[in-house]
Specification:
Elements lengths: L9 E4 L11 H16 L7 E4 L1 H9 L8 H16 L2 E2 L5 E2 L1 E6 L11 E4 L5 H9 L2 H22 L11 H15 L10 H19 L7 H16 L2 H10 L8 E6 L10 E6 L11 E6 L5 H4 L5 E2 L15 H4 L1 H18 L3 E8 L2 E9 L4 H13 L5 H6 L3 H8 L2 E2 L1 H5 L5 E2 L1 E4 L2 E7 L2 H9 L4 E5 L7 H6 L2 E4 L7 H9 L2 E4 L5 E3 L4 E4 L2 E4 L3 E5 L4 E4 L4 E2 L6 H13 L3 E5 L3 H9 L5 E5 L10 H11 L4 H25 L4 E5 L13 H11 L3 H10 L12 H6 L1 H20 L5 E6 L5 H22 L7 E6 L2 H5 L1 H4 L5 E4 L1 H9 L10 H6 L16 H15 L4 E4 L7 H9 L4 E4 L4 H15 L1
Parallel strand pairs: 3-4, 16-17, 17-18, 18-19, 26-27, 26-33, 27-28, 28-29, 29-30, 30-31, 31-32, 32-33
Antiparallel strand pairs: 1-2, 2-7, 5-6, 5-7, 8-9, 8-11, 9-10, 11-12, 13-25, 14-24, 15-19, 16-23, 20-21, 21-22, 23-24
Bound molecules: adenosine-5'-diphosphate and magnesium ion (MG) (2 copies).
């Protein structure tokens, strides 16, 4: 380098030592950093150099001009490369060829594809022919260069957008076909050296005609053209939209790697291949990969020829007859095997490697951390921990929370899904996949399911009356509603596949049709849902079963438990759910919605009594109805506490908008009127009076308890009496009473008097000294968060109801976001659905304030979250950072929360 003070833009790799290393990904890109690292640990890597990401940034900052020093630094690195390889770029006797490879921090669609054989032209090819004595190989390389270069450099990276079918690649392929036809050739390999030589000249004419510019013959011009194309492609349409989608900042830039070519296509002693240090589909610990003799570049992955298994252990019934590298070139294979072991030890991870063999000599061309599916990720994390390759904390970070979905739910076979396009999309409300026949109402769902059919219940949106059909269906699809709509909440609670808010579908329940842009579905038609992504496909796709009973899964969960510090509870609404939650590893119930005893199986009687209570007009009427309801409530509470013996259960007092419970059915109304001893007109009058314009902000939660104290009293008594009975049975109930929708400390003060009074009455009645319990509140209204210090004077715990807190904090109606949220996300007005991922920036502040103020009043106040966010990984991490006592989520998300809580600890280390 001429001047030691100037900025370093180019990093050489090759020989024994590279100028870069693996930690320099930001500067050298992923590919460049790992190439340098491989050189440093002594692997054979064809020499070359990396132009840094800073050049990309500078290039755009400076009106698409390179830094002045760049040219000299590139020439310098090129010289070193030539010296290392013993060849000269552009030389007519002993030409060096290079590949130009893009290299962002992580591989990115939309970036320029690699161009191979750069430096080849009508002059340099003569030297190469002499050297290799293989004219056919040289002409083939040259025509490949022209084809690749014209396509990726001259057309795509330049931003040209030819009409469909008019692209330069297709036109050149057309010429290739014409040449084959003219000489009666079936395959490319049938063309002779002479044919290819002629084709090269035809290609050049065609390129000029299609692009309007000649293909550059000059080697140096080719090199700079390809380098510039990489930088251009950073700001190509596809790359920009990918970045936007993934939140990758524009300033990151891409690096460019220029590397000496090695040839896997020089005959049968040459080859190219791709391998993984462990099986990425199963996690099994053996070297796994594919190779092809006499091939170049991406022939292996392009699927033009069927690749061979790399070794004997990797063979299966489909590949048994093929030749493995292990037997075809045993010495080279052993060398490769040694390198892959070395690399895994060095990186402490499963790697994906690319290699090429030129005339029995092995070269390493790339390595990076390998992609893997969920089950494989879990297996590898456990194995590597056992092998002492990684720590516990590293092991829990090796599995993405969403990958656990692959173990917990059936999923669509990814190979089948990859081939299809969804015909519609919605919000991913319940993970996993499901295929089924469409039905349009709850009764049909139950009916068809009884006959053993798999059904998908399609509704405009669901309501509590659909519950049995939702249970019977294998998946639920709605056209309206958001991530916290009724359908989404219920489905998630059951771990059921569900897509909501698929706004482009017109679901007509009476006509029993779904109309979409492009067609109509009728009852009984098959569709397949990907509830993790919100994709809807036509027809029945193959499924892969859930692996809940996978022993690896259990061990991995135990590992997470040994790392995390925050407790995980679940939201469960019935004794059955409580049992299930326990089995999933929940350490308590963070939200038990008492009103759910009025839905679903065996709910007719309690629902009738509740309705009677609601339609009561006087305290006496109401007390009478409540007295009838009491045994049901108590039995429900008792069975739940029993199932969760020794673990806390948070009972939320009644919190529904009352009108939801008023029946519309005249028969039901007249039954109720009779039982209340009032006329039908009087009953209708009372029912209509319950109508509210904005029930979400209406007469609900603590407001009910204040206006009708006898409702609170009944529930509290049910909880304490159930507990007292269990204590007498030598059980250990730990009830927590939670008052919802609080906005002022005085509301709690009012309710506490009831709780205290009933508590003492129950102690006296049962002759016991104490029932361990806590009384607290939900924080779900911004005012409650802001006055949390006052509220904490009464509340022994806070549980953040982040569904409502988000609703009221944003002013977005949970039930109506379907009409605008998808567009908000599309236009990036919001980065994510705030009902799915906690908005740490805004709503998070309310939570932080409440936590701080709550602790100021009551140092040891318990703090939890019971909104849907309690099972969302980034939100769980947020809760961990604020020192929450627990998060509570739906049962099927408990494993994900356990993992996320462990990862929060591991990341903080
Ligand atoms: P990607 O980003 O898609 O992995 P690469 O830059 O790895 O693209 O290039 C794709 C393929 O081209 C490589 O897998 C390798 O087979 C081939 N290739 C790249 N550079 C060279 C080289 N210097 N010599 C031989 N083959 C190369
Ligand atoms: Mg590629
Ligand atoms: Mg590659």
């Amino acid at each position: 380098m001429s001047n030691t003070n100037e900025k370093k833009y180019v990093y050489f790799f090759g020989g024994k030592k590279a100028e870069g290393e693996a930690t320099m990904k930001n500067l050298l890109g992923g590919k460049g950093a790992n190439l340098a690292e491989m050189v440093n640990i002594g692997l054979p890597v064809p020499a070359g150099f990396t132009i840094t990401t800073e050049v990309c940034t500078a290039y755009y900052a400076n009106n698409k001009n390179y830094p002045q020093e760049l040219n000299a630094q590139v020439m310098d690195a090129l010289k070193r490369t030539e010296a290392e390889m013993g060849m000269i770029f552009g030389d007519k006797d002993n030409p060096l060829l290079v590949s130009v490879r893009s290299g962002a921090r992580s591989s990115m669609p939309g970036m320029m594809e690699t161009v191979l054989n750069v430096g080849l032209n009508n002059q340099t090819r003569e030297g190469l022919i002499k050297k290799t004595n293989n004219p056919r190989f040289v002409y083939d390389s040259q025509r490949r260069l022209i084809q690749m270069y014209a396509d990726v450099v001259m057309e795509k990276a330049a931003g040209l957008e030819p009409e469909e079918g008019k692209g330069v690649r297709q036109q050149l392929e057309h010429e290739l076909q014409k040449m084959k036809d003219a000489h009666g050739c079936k395959s490319d390999t049938d063309l002779t050296a002479e044919n290819l030589k002629d084709l090269i000249e035809i290609y050049k004419v065609k390129v000029k005609e299609v692009i309007g510019k000649p293909f550059p013959e000059d080697a140096m011009e080719q090199l700079w053209g390809a380098v510039s194309a990489v930088f251009q492609s950073w700001n190509g349409k596809r790359a920009i939209s990918y970045r936007r989608f993934e939140g990758i900042p524009e300033e990151w830039g891409t690096a460019v790697n220029v590397q000496s070519m090695v040839f896997g296509n020089m005959g049968d002693t040459s080859a190219t291949g791709v391998a993984f240090t462990r099986n990425p589909a199963t996690g099994d610990n053996y070297f796994y990969g594919e190779w092809l003799a006499n091939a170049q570049g991406e022939d292996v992955v392009a699927g033009i020829r069927t690749p061979n298994p790399i070794n004997e252990i990797g063979k299966d019934e489909h590949t048994r007859h093929l030749h493995s590298l292990e037997t075809a070139m045993p010495v080279v294979y052993q060398e490769l095997n040694k390198y892959q072991q070395l690399l895994e030890k060095h990186y402490h991870n499963m790697l994906d490697i690319e290699f090429t063999i030129q005339d029995q000599k092995l070269y390493m061309l790339q390595c990076r951390v390998g992609k893997r599916n969920g089950p494989a990720a879990v297996r590898m994390a456990l194995d590597m921990l056992k092998e002492g390759l990684i720590t516990k904390e590293e092991a829990v970070l090796r599995v993405e929370p969403h990958q656990l979905d692959e173990l917990l739910h059936p999923i669509i076979d990814p190979a089948a899904e990859k081939k299809l396009k969804p015909f519609a999309k919605g919000l991913p409300a319940g993970p996993g996949g499901a295929a089924g026949q469409i039905v349009f109402n709850s009764e049909d769902a139950v009916e068809w399911a009884k006959k053993g059919k798999l059904v998908i219940l399609a509704r405009e949106e669901t309501n509590p009356e659909d519950i049995e059909g939702m249970r019977a269906a294998t998946a639920i699809l709605t056209a309206r509603g958001g991530m916290t709509s009724h359908a989404a909440l219920v489905a998630r609670g059951w771990g059921k596949c569900c897509i909501v808010g698929a706004g482009t579908l017109k679901i007509n329940a009476s006509a029993k049709t779904i109309t979409y842009d492009g067609g109509v579905f009728n009852e009984g038609d098959w569709v397949t849902l990907n509830g993790s992504k919100g994709y809807i496909y036509k027809g029945e796709l193959p499924m892969i079963k859930a692996a809940e009973e996978n022993p690896d899964f259990q061990s991995f969960m135990n590992l997470c438990d040994s790392v995390r510090t925050m407790k995980i509870r679940t939201n469960a609404d019935s004794p059955e759910d409580a049992k299930k939650a326990r089995a999933f590893g929940a350490e308590g119930i963070g939200l038990f919605r008492t009103e759910h005893m009025f839905y679903g199986l065996n709910s007719e009687k309690p629902l009738f009594l509740l309705r009677k209570m609601i339609a009561s007009n006087t305290v006496e009427e109401r007390r009478a109805a409540l007295a009838e309801l009491f045994p049901y409530a108590k039995a429900n509470v008792k069975a739940t506490l029993e199932a969760m013996d020794g673990l806390p259960v948070t009972f939320r007092t009644l919190d529904p908008p009352l009108h939801e419970f008023v029946p519309n059915n005249p028969e039901e109304r007249s039954k109720l009127a009779k039982s209340l001893n009032v006329s039908a007109t009087e009953f209708n009058h009372r029912a209509d009076a319950l109508h509210e314009n904005n029930p979400m902000m209406g007469h609900r939660g603590v407001r009910l308890g204040i206006t009708y104290p006898e409702i609170t009293e009944m529930q509290v008594r049910a909880i304490f009496e159930a507990s007292a009975e269990l204590i007498k049975d030598k059980k250990n109930p730990l009830p927590e009473i939670m008052i919802p929708v609080t906005c002022a400390a005085s509301e709690l003060k009012d309710q506490y008097q009831i709780v205290d009074r009933v508590y003492n009455e129950v102690l006296a009645k049962f002759g016991i000294k104490e029932i361990k319990h806590l009384v607290g509140t939900m924080i779900e209204i911004p005012r409650a968060a802001l006055t949390a210090d006052k509220i904490a004077e009464y509340a022994q715990f806070f549980s953040f109801g982040t569904n409502d807190l988000t609703q009221m904090g944003f002013g977005f109606s949970r039930d109506d976001i379907g009409s605008f949220l998808p567009e908000y996300l599309e236009k990036k007005i919001l980065p994510v659905d705030p009902f799915n991922v906690l908005d740490q920036e805004g709503i998070g502040q309310l939570i932080e304030i409440a936590v701080k103020k709550g602790r100021a009043t009551r140092k040891d106040i318990h703090i939890g979250i019971c909104g849907e966010h309690g099972g969302e990984p980034s939100s769980v991490e947020f809760c961990h950072r604020l020192g929450f006592t627990y998060v509570s989520c739906s049962p099927f998300r408990v494993p994900i929360a356990r993992l996320a809580a462990a990862q929060a600890v591991a990341r903080a280390k």
